[in-house]
Amino acid sequence: MSAVPSPEAPLTATGNLRRRAVVSRLFEGSATAAALLAVGVLGIVVFSVVKNGASALNWDFITKNPPQFGGSSGGIANAVAGTVIITLLATAMAMPISVLVALYLSEFGSRRSARAIGMVLDLLNGIPTVVVALFVFGLLVAGHQHSGFAMALALAVIMLPLIARASQEVLRLVPQSLRDAADALGVSRRRTVLGIVLPTALSGIVTATVLAAARAAGETAPALFLNSIYNSSQTQLNPFGHPVPNVPVLIFQLSEQADASGFARAWGAAFVLLTVILIANIGARALLARSRSKMGA
Amino acid sequence: MRAAVWPAVSVRNLRARVKTRGRFGDALLYGLCALACVLTVVVLVAIAYEVVKGARLSISTFGLGFVGHTVWKPNPPFNALGAAVFLFGTAVTSAMALLIAAPVGIAIGLYLALLAPGRVRSVVGPLVEMLAAIPSVILGLWGILVLGPYLNRHVEPWLHGKLGFIPLFGDVPTTGANVFTAGLILSIMVVPVIASISRDLFLTVPRELEEGALALGATRWETVRGVVLPSTASGVAAACFLGLGRALGEAIAVAQVIGSGNVISRSLFSTGDTLASRIALQFPGAETKLHTSSLFYLAVILLVIGLVTNLIAQWISRRFDYQVAVVR
Prior knowledge:
The structure holds two protein chains of two kinds. By secondary structure, chain A is an all-alpha fold. Helices cover 75% and strands 0% of the residues of chain A. Chain A contains eleven helices and no strands. Chain B is an all-alpha fold. Chain B has a single domain (66-327), classed as MetI-like (MetI-like fold), CATH 1.10.3720. Chain B has helices at residues 11-62, 84-115, 118-131, 136-163, 179-204, 207-215, 220-249, 252-257, 275-282, 289-327, and strands spanning 72-73, 80-81. The radius of gyration of chain B is 27 Å and the shape is globular. Classes of the chains: A mainly alpha, B mainly alpha. The interface between A and B is large, with 96 and 94 residues.
């Protein structure tokens, strides 16, 4: 980079100490301002959601279904339940496979194969979620009806690289001495991995899973393409072969209609969704911080 | 004295027994892990296959010319479709997002890695990452109901008044749903990506190098410019490419705020559409087979752009790995 001064240049004092100090102060000030800006934007978005959402929020809003023939009364209970079911289903599909992939990367794979699989994971992570949603549409929905399972599958594809990469990072932190000790005792590879390595990394893997699930819960493109054609007051929650009401579709559809009472409901739903996601995030991070300090890394 | 009588088990025998006991379980676990990896590769290939399959009708109807066509009239009498408007929209919004988010994100990374006191760092760092946790549909809702109207009332008229001679700000802003708002929303989504990766990079710069520069009398800024940034430049570039990938592929938030326009406009204050947002807006309501297939064609283009961006990021950061190995 041109910023590196030539090593042969004579070291002469330029005498503009004041200017250098000012430039440096300016840099420190603007870097601090950038951080404040990001935190400020987060604050403004959360504040907007809380302020507008709180007015829509009451006990009925969380515990009741929408009225059968439209209107602004009623709640979003069915959509919340549907989102929980679909997210759990997606997690149940994504987590075991992701952890196995992470184990392969950190315990079994040769350098080259681990690198190749890592690259595939990064590519998968880089695929836009609309494209993943269209993939599952072609696979499961084209010619059939929308279903909660199709959406869960798309979410699982989105979660897979997230969990696998993060779990790999945690597995890397497990001290090599534990593995060596197990080998020295003649413990089989399988029992080393399942009995020692995995339990040590467990809280990190749980953190990764919770973070990925929080991300998946708010994904809207898969919901829109794979699981959005349903009667909004329905209470049917079986995801296999049937569409299931969910929160992201609710927010998106309400936000696309120019209707003030709809906006209020959208804010209310956004408030519920954001609260759950942020709490999951904070909880997962706290867990990770604790496990890191326990592992001494 | 007689030699001790050993049981009839030789060392060799023993080892064989230990091995056979562990072998099956080991092989099973290894097999499961390998199978999961194969499955991952299969998913990646299947995504490409399925999307291209969906686009086949449109590809055979329009060919490669689709990429350059600026009309989008999916209804039966016209049946004329092309991707150029959306490619343009994607390029403009992503460029705007990156122009804003790259400096801000890198500055945040520098602040968190070098300037912030320990306690502040452990609070601000997670907060910045939490910005990435806000679901795009909520950011989009905020974009149309709060940010868009605010920009339209206060910021856009001012920009138009002062800088209206530049074509970018040439149109009279009418509503808050336009390319400008979309670019800002995207930059909010990209900042945390660049900030957290670049922070981790800056933390890898060997402390001795920084301290050496400071000991030579360099100011904080000179240390950053002369030591920290040059030694992490390629990693930072990779972070920007990852951020770009995020911006290119975002569908929902953009669909909510961009106003879905059908023409290429030089002005940021007009409506537009990106590849991803057009798919999100029209796919659920597409009526003809050709229309659906053309949306898949847009997805193919998006997939190619996304994969290339991602590969570039990986390629650059791999070079970075090499550099670190050499420096240390």
